[in-house]
Request: fold
Amino acid sequence: MTPISTPISSAWSAVGGDPALLARVSTVVREGALRARLPVRELARACVGACALAAAELGARRAGLAEVPGVRLDDGAIATAFVSERHLLVDGRAPVNFAPLSRFWRTSDGWVRTHANFPHHRARLLTALGVPEEDPDAVGAVLAERSAREVEETVYAAGGLAVALRTPEEWAAHEQAVAVARRPLVEHERSDTARARALSPLDGSVLLPAAGVRVLDLTRVIAGPVATRTLALLGADVLRVDPPQLPELPDQHADTGFGKRSATVDLTTDRRAFEELLASADVVVTGYRPGALDRFGLSARELAERRPGLIVAEVSAWGAYGPWGERRGFDSLVQVATGIAATEGGMADGSAGRPGALPAQALDHGTGYLLAAAVLRALTAQLDQGYGRCVRLSLARTAKWLTTGIRPGPEGALASEEAEAYDAPDAWLTERDSALGRLRYARTPVSFAGGPVDWARPPGAWGADLARWV
Reply:
């Protein structure tokens, strides 16, 4: 009999996992976690489950264990982690996650959503609309006189971000959606035949599957940083490198900076420093717009040529193909384009109303955990086969999976237990001191027997570390 496909089995298959290992996974089901019209809870559970199982598998191999440690998925921990940016407190201060111009707007024929959290994106939006200063009323007045599609094209042409609201049917007919649907959830490519650096066996009381792995983190915002934050939890030496002229939003950096170090390198003036880092890296994770790093010789192919045996992991908003392949994007905008916002607002059938949103930036967080899972599985494969590899994911492809590939319900034959409903996150929050101040933050949802329960170090100030490996 063909086994029934469940969300976690689909995610595990997408990263190349052995289906027999799914028996090592158990779930704690909590009603009310990530409540939505779409099966967000099931997507979140599957992405974290694939990541935790990949970590447990790699840890067992490196530690010489006879059996892969058991994985425990708790809907409460997962739901809390999927909105980690909302739970962060720095000395009691809550972060601001969306700027005043990052929101839905009425247009002459529907709705559009803009994203202007970063100063350069805000400036380009205002320039495209002909509004001289940050005045929400003035922006609203201009948008109300234009069509949503006109705004989308005008703002993107100026280098800003705005996406017209589409229904699921409208998105399915779009050329970009067609290109996305042709791709697997996780793309895999062998990039060379060189042997990767051998990883030493593990010992110690805590199982750290990625101990000794050097991860060069070239990501921003949420999805990529969630992946590298997870690899740092699992013992990797993660060094995030940013251009000095493009700082990350401080609260965003704090939320995703656990376990990492942060440095700045100007690729136009200090290329030698970057190449020295690359020469000893085991993994490079990139999260910039497709093509943005190519002018620096940092495409996956060029990276692999200069560092044989390297694992390259790429994440983007729309995918590196199709007419939107080089467009910027964020979770909130992908939700609007792909019909998710229309569905969550009860507008998918053409009904009047206001667009909605998922209860979390689940495309970002889910794709981030899947990206980490793909890296961990690539590291496991290298133990047997060597070879450099490239894995690619996109928020739009994760959205396709959420909207058409997941059905709510139990996880098939996986062991599960019902627990109290999810109504408060306190059990999955903790506190610690840091260079940034006293932090309250979400605990990791990645849980397996013998594995870590917290990061080895809190986040530090952006760009405060030296650009070198430990």
